[in-house]
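Quick one: sequence plus zinc ion SMILES, need structure tokens.
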Amino acid sequence: MTQAVCRFCGAQLKLSFADLGMSPPSNSYLEAADLNRMERFYPLHAWVCEKCFLVQLEEFETPEEIFSDYAYFSSYSDSWLAHAKAYTELMIARFGLGASSFVVEIASNDGYLLQYFVAQGVPVLGIEPAANVAAVAEKKGVPTLVKFFGTETATELAAAGRKADLIAGNNVLAHVPDLNDFVRGMSVLLKPGGVVTMEFPHLLRLMQENQFDTIYHEHFSYFSFVVAERVFAAHGLTLFDVEEIPTHGGSLRIYARHAANAALPVSAKVTELRRREQAAGLERAETYHLFAEQVKATKRGLLKFLIAAKESGKRVVGYGAPAKGNTLLNYCGVRSDLVEYTVDRSPHKQGRFLPGVHIPIYPPERIMETRPDYVLILPWNLKDEVVAQMAAIRAWGGRFVVPIPEVSVLD
Ligand SMILES: [Zn+2]
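Reply:
Sure thing.
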């Protein structure tokens, strides 16, 4: 039970979706000198609103470090840049954007996406609250407003005659504390014939594939398509198209327009996805209750495996130090007595320790030196890559294990 209310509709939150206990911020890796210091832990408990079915974290004292760490995500990979470039080409072709259009990206980071519109001669504006990150964008020729986005910023831009033909937002919707103010702002900023696109992890995939370890403190909301439709509709915006894309374990890219703009008809994909979500039970409280039970069963399964391995004298180590691993290991209370160490290719993580559970992080070569029996793959979304890269462990009979959707030893 909680006193909290839904950040969209205001109903009291009563139904637990995933209670992951107390957890440190997922990117707060520790130096050796930090190990004897006090660490900050915050409740990591997702609830579902039984009235509108928005899955959300209860509001908690917002730690500054969560937001300062957010800037850390700006180190985009080549594949993410390719994703951004392909998006740009798609939007220009589909909506006929050119020199007289205006594209705004919310949480534009270092200009990783808008730079491709600039290269095509399309005027842009980035909106980014982190000044140091915005400065990097400006250097790339991406004009950037250093602000949080909401109704106030949107009203100022609209009053200055700067309404947008396209508003883009990748992985920002989940991070917004005041959801209504944010979506209302997009409605204010959007030209009558304009289009909004937003990308976010898809709740249907999270539930079907048991990806509860992708619940982090900085992700306040978890959307199904139906709930996104409901939230946008409340602010006069209609979702007229949707694509399912592979990023972050399965995401949606939604397309919104003003409800009055009949020039953009609603695609059959919208109806089809809505029907699929309803068939999966996403509009029934019972489905969310079953998920909460499944999360607990997953924890017991992982612990059973680790304890049995330990008792039969096997050595278990981890592979990777992703944020999702921190959620999982803290929730399950797995420390170096069960998983001796983990390895990561990032030199920034090597020599440090996972937050909360204090498991040490080494370079991947450590596995070749210590020849463990099991390698637990924490970034399960990169399973195939890890198996290919570490195939040499089979030489001494080493085996790979994935924790999600349920603990299983790979053949
Ligand atoms: Zn609600």
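Residues 6, 8-9, 11, 49, 51-52, 54 surround zinc ion (CB under 6 Å). The chain has a mean pLDDT of 94.
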